[in-house]
Specification:
mainly alpha; 3-stranded antiparallel beta sheet; 41% helix; globular
Length: 241
């Protein structure tokens, strides 16, 4: 709330929003590891309809503050056991160099001795619930990953699980970000006169948003590029699942 009251027009990462309900001793050291451990420890017990969450959500709505929640970043911390595969990368298994794939199997954040992985997963579920509350209230959501970029489609899948329609999830990765940076008249949607890089996918993203991974042709700067050739040039051995 201090940042919002000081004039921020966007809050990036959902941990900073749920931490509005964290104890003061967590906030005082939140610029270190506590920004991860704090939400994992206390998130499960946050009342999403309590005063702290109602205050920050209503203020963000009133001031038209955007959120880039980077949900995949926190799912990767709280959900997988150590050694398990991060859900964002599951569709790419078998198409990546072995060393890269091993890196995606590092598993989640180490759980403190007085907590369990189940506690962290409950805190993750509460973050998804918070995203749903924010979306329902009308906070503009923009899709980011805080990762390599491979995670973007799974970020949108998480939005769907939080109650977004597929079209709303797509908008979070296109028109809403363009609007945030004041470029909606020039890009962010398909319209005559707008600049756009386009991707032709096999499937219907409005029926199954994972179809966005099935790119077949990319139009970049007016040139048509074969997506399979691009994958091969980037070191992938095939298409994602």
């Amino acid at each position: 709330m201090d940042a919002i009251n000081d004039g921020y027009d966007e809050v990036t990462h959902i941990n900073w929003i749920i931490m509005q309900a964290a104890p003061d001793d967590v906030i005082k050291v939140s610029n270190g590891i506590m920004r991860f451990e704090g939400p994992g420890r206390f998130g499960k017990d946050v009342d999403l309809d309590g005063p702290a969450m109602n205050l920050i959500v209503s203020t963000m709505v009133k001031k038209h503050i955007y959120s880039d929640p980077t949900m995949v970043a926190f799912e990767s911390l709280y959900v997988p056991d150590n050694g398990d595969l991060d859900p964002s990368y599951a569709p790419f298994v078998g198409t990546l160099p072995a060393a890269t794939e091993r890196g995606f199997r590092n598993g989640g954040f180490a759980v403190p001795k007085d907590l369990t992985r189940a506690d962290y997963r409950k805190s993750w579920a509460k973050m998804v619930g918070l995203l749903a509350k924010m979306h329902k209230a009308g906070i503009p959501i923009v899709a980011g990953t805080d990762g390599s970029g491979l995670e973007l489609i799974h970020e949108l899948e998480i939005y769907e699980s939080a109650g977004f329609t597929p079209a709303e999830a797509l908008e979070a990765a296109t028109l809403t970000p363009a609007t945030l940076v004041g470029q909606q008249a020039h890009t962010g949607s398909i319209k005559v006169g707008k600049a756009a890089d386009l991707a032709l996918v096999e499937g219907d993203p409005e029926a199954h948003i994972g179809a966005l991974r099935q790119t077949r042709v990319v139009m970049l700067d007016g040139k048509l590029l074969d997506a399979d050739a691009l994958r091969a040039a980037a070191g992938f051995s095939g298409r994602p699942k």
